[in-house]
Amino acid sequence: MKRIFDIVLAIFGLLVLSPVILLLSILVRVKLGRPVFFTQLRPGLNGKPFKMIKFRTMRHGVDKNGKPLPDGERMTEFGRALRSTSLDELPELWNVLKGEMSLVGPRPLLMQYLPLYSIEQSRRHEVRPGLTGWAQVNGRNLLSWDQKFELDTWYVDNKSFWLDVKIIFLTVKKVLVRDGISQRGNETMEPFTGAEVMKHKKSNVIGGSNE
Questions:
Q1: Which pLDDT belongs to residue 72?
Q2: pLDDT at position 188, please?
Q3: What's the whole-model pTM score?
Q4: Residue 146: what pLDDT?
Q5: Dihedral (C-alpha) 180, 89, 172, 96: value to the nearest 10 degrees?
Q6: Which of 1, 69, 107, 134 could form a disulfide with 61 if both were Cys (CB 3.0 to 4.6 A apart)?
Q7: How many CB atoms lie within 10 A of CB 144?
Q8: Distance CA 140, CA 149 (A)
Q9: Pairing outcome for strands 102-104 and 130-132
Q10: In this structure, what are the phi and psi dihedrals at residue 103, rounded to the nearest 5 degrees?
């Protein structure tokens, strides 16, 4: 049922929102240049890589050593507007239609995070990643990494059709009030370094888990 739900809504969304997607493609091309879309390998179901597609929200920019400038220096007001309204995520409906993503599930993070997860945190890949998820409607980028992973694994253990419907409605509400878009001091979320994992392992060795 979940897959059928994804296909039907993805097709409906692509058809209904096609004028919006076309308009945004033109605006991104004019304001940020080429390419219009940002694509990046992300881990999907069982950690299998897929190419996620979004609208670009940052301009090109490198320092004197050729390294990309910080997000804050490459982000434009137009890009912030796309992110705050989550319109940059619309092309991911194509990933949903292809079966690489679901409408609801843990958000796909970076490939380099995979070896940093604890066994429990890696369980987020037992389901397809989503356009939105339980963590997104419960704080999004205002959450710590530990909190986000706990919410992701809670969804894996409690997923249901009606929970997905609830998350979709809550997502619409979050987008309308533009809640939890960025973390203080960062345009989005600070990088995951695995520090929380090491801290958790250390506490288990020294004094046992607090859970």
A1: 64
A2: 59
A3: 0.80
A4: 92
A5: -130
A6: 69
A7: 13
A8: 11
A9: parallel
A10: -65, -40
The tokens describing 162, both together, are 């009606």
Helix (H) or strand (E) holding 28: helix 18-32
pLDDT at 211: 35
Phi, psi of 149 (to 5 degrees): -70, -35
The two three-digit tokens of residue 41, written as one number: 């390998």
- Using alpha carbons only, give the angle 207, 210, 211 rounded to the nearest 5 degrees: 140
Whole-angstrom distance, CA of residue 196 vs CA of residue 89: 28
Helices and strands per DSSP (H, E), number in the chain: 8, 4
Quickly tell me which residue has 């219009």 as its tokens: 36
For the chain of 211 residues, list the mean pLDDT of each consecutive stretch of 10: 94 96 95 91 96 89 65 78 90 96 96 94 96 91 89 96 94 76 57 64 38 35
Among the listed residues 193, 40, 39, the one whose alpha carbon sits nearest the alpha carbon of residue 111 = 40
- Helices 18-32 and 77-84, interaxial angle, to 10°? 160
Q: Check: CB of residue 126 under 8 Å from CB of residue 156.
A: yes
CA 140 to CA 103: how far, in whole Å? 16
Average pLDDT, the chain: 85
